[in-house]
Amino acid sequence: MSGPEGPPAPPAEEEQPDVSHVWVVAAEIEVIPKIAKMADYRGSFKASEGQRIDALEVYCKGCRRPYDEVTGQDCSAKIDNRHLIGGDQSTRAKRKIPVPPTNARVVPGGRIQRRGIEAYVGGVSRPPR
Hints:
The chain is an alpha+beta fold. It has helices at about 35-40, 65-70, 75-80, 115-120; strands at about 25-30, 55-60.
């Protein structure tokens, strides 16, 4: 009883990851002292309607590259963000430990208490006056 089967189903399209840039604008906005105080405290403020805002720079939020350099290209931070952390961490050179002079002598210091009441009284966990 097996009849003719219909046409094969088209292959499902794989979703491509979004590698487009997210553009942001560094701006310069003139505000009154009251709004400046609030913006300093909260870290944000509301601009008034119709206010002109001067754009200082337009760049991608992900890769931090200017608009005119990377427009039309994929965002490199969404593909691979190693360039933002100084390259491949497994192949980077290790920090060089400075070599003391030949006539230098290492003198061990005392033990510093970093926790508890002794640390507080000793000034480790509070700023100097």
